[in-house]
Amino acid sequence: MRYIYLHGFASRPASRKATYFRERFAERGLELHVPALDGGNFEGLTITGQLEVIREHAAGEPCVLIGSSLGGYLAAVYASRHPEVERIVLLAPAFCFPRRWEDELGAETFAAWKAEGSRPVFHYGEGREMRIGFGLIEDGMQYEDYPAATQPSLLLHGLSDTVVPVEYSRHFVELYPECSTLVEIETDHEMGDVLPLLWSHTSSFLFDGPEIDSQK
Fold first, then answer.
1. Hey, how many other C-beta atoms are within 10 angstroms of the C-beta on 53?
2. pLDDT tens digits for 166-204?
3. Report field, pTM of the whole predicted structure over 0.85
4. Nearest alpha-carbon partner for 200 in 21, 57, 18
5. Among positive and negative, which fits the CA dihedral 173, 28, 59, 74?
6. Which pairs with CB-CB distance under 8 Å and at least 24 residues apart come from 182-186?
């Protein structure tokens, strides 16, 4: 079984949550793979490119995906297309990711981004502004807002999340109630103040629940 953690937008494998989860997995004698989803080319970032990075690390084997924010959306998209994914844990998943940018930026700024081909955004992993190409949006529009991931899914979402409101996760669970569970937590989008609680829910879901049928 492979365990893969997918970091958020403008983040990196050494993020606080990724590091915390990697350490908890190591305590259980397990390796948590945390790939750099931009493949070293942040400006050329696309949903398709990130899915390819996941595919390379999953290597066609049974796997579990844990995704934060954009990583959570990617986990759902990938799982909906790959039955070898056996469970997914989604931390404040950024559903509707490509379609939300225009509303958040405003029509004028969004149009300027499209016309110029790229725009600066703050990269939290690098601690500085970096440019992101409009290809992220053009490519992303081919993917569904709420992927039909029917594997057992645990969603953990902050009630004070202003980046990705909890309503997005609530809607996903309404669409797929037979396989998904949402735990709402008193925290914000970063969830940095509730890491032990995130791990408690995650470890219970992955290791203390019913056995996963790795032959399916």
1. 17
2. 999 999 999 999 999 999 999 999 999 999 999 999 999
3. yes
4. 21
5. positive
6. 182/155, 182/156, 182/157, 183/154, 183/155, 183/156, 183/157, 184/157, 184/158, 184/159, 185/156, 185/157, 185/158, 185/159, 186/158, 186/159, 186/160
